[in-house]
Amino acid sequence: MRRAAGVVGELLMTLGALVLLFVVWQVWWTDVTSDRAQAQTVSSLTRDFAAAPTEGGTPAPSLLEGDAFAVVRVPRFGADYARPLVEGTSAAELARGLGHYIGTAGPGEVGNFAIAGHRTTYGKPLTDIDRLRVGDEVIVETVAGESVYAVTGHEIVRPWESDVIAPVPGDPGAKPTKAMLTFTSCHPKFSAKQRWVVHAELTLTRTREQIALKDDVPAPAPSVEAS
User: Fold this and answer.
1) pTM of the model
2) Of 159-163, 180-184, 214-218, where does mean pLDDT reach its minimum?
3) How many domains does the chain have?
4) Catalytic pick from 73, 186, 199, 208?
5) Is the residue at 126 inside a domain?
6) Which of 2, 66, 122, 191 has the smallest number of Cβ neighbours within 10 A?
7) Which of these is catalytic: 187, 195, 206, 208?
8) Does residue 9 fall inside a structural domain?
9) Which residues contact 185 (CB under 8 A, 6 or more apart)?
């Protein structure tokens, strides 16, 4: 019995060590590796954007799931905050940065441009989502230019309440008349019990040429067909 108890004790100690190592990997090491990879993606996208023509307009690329296509900057999160935006919201894509909900509007488009991101682990790009305040800017840069949004409010919902990413948040059957952005992330931290949601509205756009000239241009009124 004494020998069996010793074996069980050793097994429990080994199991505890393995669990501890997994927690360290999940909480700390994934941040290290994802931060490095995301910074490299941002650098690559920034170079590509800088090389794009500044006159005549740049057509939006045809995106495949997993493509990194934009850089998201949030001044509230720090002057150096810049995260890549990837098409799709699977676990693999969210490990690479922020994820664009497939089927939602694109940057600057009428409708709801919806983005998901981790609040903990894998670079935790939305760890400070609760710090955003009404009026804070969210800047989304693509090869075509920049779309600037202003935060309008927060809400906390249950995971299955997907109407927050509808074209008109909270009203899935409505037809959108303005360009919006929605962030979603887990709440509370280290839990997937709820979702923290932030909504924002487009305030201005800048083409690549206007960025070069540092000229802010108010967002154009959306074109909406009569119903």
Assistant:
1) 0.82
2) 214-218
3) 1
4) 186
5) yes
6) 2
7) 195
8) no
9) 116, 117, 118, 119, 126, 129, 195, 196
**Which segment of 1-15, 36-50, 70-84 scores lowest on mean pLDDT?**
1-15
CATH number for the domain spanning 194: value is: 2.40.260.10
| CA distances to 53, 130, 173 from 91, in Å | 34, 22, 29
pLDDT tens, residue by residue, 149-177: 999 999 999 999 999 999 999 999 999 99
- Is residue 25, in this structure, part of any structural domain at all? no
pLDDT at 1 over 90: no
Domain of 46, in residue numbers: 42-218
Selected catalytic residue, list 118, 119, 187, 206: 118
The identity of residue 182, as a single letter, is: T
pLDDT recorded at residue 84: 98
Does residue 195 have an active-site annotation?
A: yes
In a domain, residue 8? The reply is no
